[in-house]
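seq:
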Amino acid sequence: MQDYTTEITYISNYYCDLTPVHLAFIAAINNFPPPDIYQPFNYCELGCGCGKTTNIVAAAYPQASCVGIDINKDHIAIARNESKGISNIEFFDLSFGEALERDFQPFDFITMHGIWSWVGDSVRSDILEFVRKFLKPNGLFYVSYDAMPGWAQLQPFHKILSIYTRDKEANITEKAKAGMTYLQFLNENKSPFFEYSPCARQFLQCLDQSDIRYVIHELFNKNLRPEYFCDVAEAMKSADLSFVGDCVHVNNYQMMLTEPFRKLLNTTADKICRETHKSIMLNDRFRKDVYARCKSIPQDVGRRLECFEKFLFGAMKPLSELSLEVQIHGYTLTLNADPYLKIFEILASDQLSIFEINQKLKLPEDRVGETLENVINCMLTNQFGIFFRKKNTEEPLQQISFPSAYNLNQIMNWQEQYSKYIFLASEIVGDAFAISKQNAMIIAAICKFGLQKEIVVEYVHEHIISHIKNGNGMFGFSENQDIKYLISFHYEEITRTLLKTLQSLGIIANRLLPKRSA
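struct:
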């Protein structure tokens, strides 16, 4: 992979689309039997970068065995350092070709974020061979990539930056910054490239606000090849993979298309042809697709229910905050009061299976398929989630503790984290919960001193003042602000709501203090 940029690390971030629970749900709604994530399973991320997602998966699924593979040794060093406290994960600094020679156990899930767009044909062949060799029957493969036709107006960025920086004697970071200055010069001086392409101008604004490492990895690789969905699907077919669906839940439906587009899609029964048309109609610029080493099951209610029978569904927010009308990617989704208000009430109070929800609705067993479709529609609103077990009881906190050594490490070392947010793993939802570094700083102090407001506020205040005096305006604070008041305000918000949420998701536990003897 010498054509791929390895001289600088990529952004460390968490991608929830790669989680087993999300991939299993996408498979289920598209009538593919998902791997059983309630039993031991094997998970692999190709091109795992700094390992944030792979580590979260390992911490959230103790029943899983996880593997992260990346060619960048610095990425793997960071990933291994962050995996402290996790026993079910291994990281390997290997090319995909080298990984092919290893004796990995077959995987239920193989994921790969973005890499497909940035590598040449030989590396793509290695990826497909790896999937062909190591993905289990019924296993799922996630691949995301820069897509056409949305990238058509953006492809010149790659060539423009290459030409402008070709003869510059500078490291890759300096080249990227010089290239960005050149693009801004073209835009400010009304180059027709930007004048006639609002999409290109919008992309430039996005790049300008992004971490320079994103610019480098997106635009400074020798190979940048956005592709149409049908071409990627054809490549996946060579690895015996069937297209499952779009990893973005709402994109598996036609609701965002106008009536003429819907009529056109319904003129063909071929799934690849239909998805290609939909991708063109939506002008896809980036796709997140799921493939499977199996075929879809027949359209049978009983078989369909089997795909969902182990999932528990529940609300991600209080009933008072749930809405029947939501905005999704510019589209307004409106659910009818009947039956959805009743389902909202049921799911806001408990986490239940489809069969339990049907019983709560007092419907006969032969209507459980109808209940399933209504719950799936609720999931479209992004207000509900899948749970592995019921939320924990929110008993009054005396002193917080972290059952997961990984989460404790993330909190106590919040300053060392490479990502913008601190991501904490939850076994209850099989996903991560993000908190700001400012909140992480206060929670770290609570871990150290307990729920003693005055001591915590004073400690955090001294920490911030020390940074300000050293020229680091931490979180935008300045000495002329009433910093203690702001810290006190954040402390109250954290103890009133955030800690309770973390407790309900099993991220923190209540450590009871010993009773004092009389």
